[in-house]
Amino acid sequence: MEIYQDEVHALVGENGAGKSTLIKVLVGAYKRNSGEIHFNNQKAEFDSPAQAFQNGINVIYQENSLIPQLTVIQNIFLGAERFTPLGLIDEKKIYQEYLSISEKLGFELPPHEEVRNLGVAEQKLVEILKALIHKTKFIIMDEPTASLSENEIEHLFRIISELKSNHISILYITHILGEVFRIADRITVLRDGKKIKTVFTKEVNRDEVITMMVGESLINAYISPTTGRKKSQQPILKVENLRRKPRVNGVSFEASPGEVLGITGLMGAGKTELSRLIFGADKLEGGQILVNDKSVRFHSPLDAVNQGISLVPEDRKKDALVLMLELYKNITLPTLAQFANKGVISSGKEFDITIQYIKKLDIKTSGVNQVVKYLSGGNQQKVAISKWLQTEPKVLILDEPTRGIDVNAKVEIYNIVGKLAESGVCVIFVSSEVSEVVKVSDRILVLSHGKISGEFKRGVSQEEIMRMILQADK
Amino acid sequence: MTKKINLNLTWYSIKKNGILFIFILLCVFLSIITPGFLSWANILNILRQSSIIGIMAIGTTFVIIGAGFDISVGSLLALSAAMCVGLQHYMHWSFAILLVLIVGALVGLLNGFLAAKIHIPAIIATLGTMTIVRGLVYLYTGGYPLYVEAPDFAFIGTGYLGPIPFPVVLLVIMVAFWQFILVKTRFGRYACALGGNKEAVRLSGVKVDYYHILTFVVGGLMASMAGVVYAARLLSVTPLAGQGYELDAIAATVIGGTSVSGGEGSVVRTLVGVLLLTIIANVFNLLGIHIYVQYVIKGAIILSAVGFDTYSKFRE
Questions:
Q1: Nearest by CB: B196 against A325, A345, A370
Q2: Which of A4, A105, A257, A294 fits as disulfide partner to A232, beta carbons 3.0 to 4.6 Å?
Q3: pTM for this entry
Q4: Residue B74 host element (H or E)
Q5: d(CA A62, CA A147)
Q6: For A256-292, what is each residue's pLDDT tens digit?
Q7: A94-132 per-position pLDDT tens digit
Q8: CATH number of residue B129's parent domain
């Protein structure tokens, strides 16, 4: 892939297509397995984002990387302060430089305001200014409009074209195609971690790009077996008007044993927050949860577990596993009481059950004693799922269960989900990868801004759901 | 890939058992240069010198495994010792001991509450209780030393069971008991797990705060028990008793391979850490190294042990 000078180059692809990984490899946050990077016609070896930054490549992430307690000017000049001959910080010179550069780009920020008091859009501008002060030649923007309003997006686009005329190249990452067609010169489509095509924006239309994004990927070739599933008429879980600011704003739905209920939506739509609410991990601010038509109150995850509800959280490393512990200790964590006789844990029993799950879910490991840290992402995910299967849940919520794992492992996870539904478990499959939600679920809810904006049955096409998501978002 | 895992495992086992190698090497070396080193009398002597810090360090091990920290145990030892002596004016010494252990557990409970529920960083929370408890010691003693009057109470510190000093028996029983609790019970397992990743354990449906606080209760309880032995061994308690003991207990724990960031550790290895510190102190005394210099060296040893742990974690 090539990016020219003075170009706005869009990188598009579905969630999980490998966009974020590509950037991280590009700036040296991740080590690459093979391949080369050339920058300004020179072979580039970046060991860390800091090194890439010094060489004029700057990434503006979705979450901003400013220091909230410092002022706008202090943030912009962080690491590039100007000094007086005595070695003191030259406030005057900094201020003048700031004025000249912000004039050039045609916008104004309150220079002495603390960054935490600014809006999200203004913070993005601060990051852009910071990049310019550090003599950046190449800016990577990762979903920059994710939390911006219509007006702010307009403003950002004006600045992007301004940057372009100042000889700065931009790699613009997004899955909102409307934006791409407005600002990009060329588009590169990624799918399953591979480049599908690079095209000039003028030469293609929207539908062609969607087709390239969706394509005949491995996941799309996967067909979920639905035979043998008997959805019960009686819903096991009902939630009514669930609320927790700011991400969950009144969600109601029901789910039955033996069905896979998919929940999808953009990042930040409130999927994870909703999952955590149902599991009692966060406090409910309004609404109620009914299990078997009985209203329940969860004060902690323990209460939810006792009602037969389990959650495999989104962030494996942070929320699901104790990385430094052995495999079997992770798996028996929620059910340890069952392995104790008069308070004394029987490791033998723990090993037996762990071996069962290693076989059942085909976990690739050197043994029950392996420390979970050294497993691959897909196998770690299987450990997290095993841990919860053991509690024999009636409702199993899987939050982004395939994030960051390879395609084969993904398909294995889908098969596990199918088998669970067959055995009468109610599976709630939460994912922002529309392609997999469509394949796996019997019923699909679309979540936008913390509300359900649409419901679909099995058989709906991926495009239809994507359209619904993007519509609801704008 | 397999090669890498093997490498990691070897590294892991060295990290885990390195302290044992060093300990054995040191013992062999010392038995060669000082003929009496491996004599029964000297071994018992080393064990007896280790008993007070050893008992205290068991509690410290639990606290640190749970990713906590407790620097109040030195003060708590003093309070326990003072109360244990003082209360004997009003009741039989066995009741005094019972009461003192309860006080120790309560101080631990307070530490745990401040750390787990109020979310004060444990080192700051226990810095506060350390100061409060030391103040209570002065209030209780009025600033004067207290002396033990009941001769049979002294058995706990100076008596023998057969050929073995009672404090050593107590130490060995406590190490065995708490190692069992750590490895074989839910409390022990959860203590390790929550030290490794508290949020993941909470989301596993475990009452994490309860178990987190319990680690501090063990810390307080064992500090009090150490205080009882201290009083019975020295037969007097000054208000300055136990100053700096918390550092020895923490040092022994960390030298024993318990990770300062929590999640892994062992009571038995902590005992090895205590013995190592005692032996080193003995050697220094034999070599005539001044106590001031010993402080400097001890500090360096602690930093090396912690640095080894944290730096190897960082490299991963």
A1: A325
A2: A257
A3: 0.81
A4: helix B73-86
A5: 8
A6: 999 999 999 887 788 999 999 999 999 989 899 999 9
A7: 888 888 877 777 777 788 888 888 877 778 888 888 887
A8: 1.10.3470
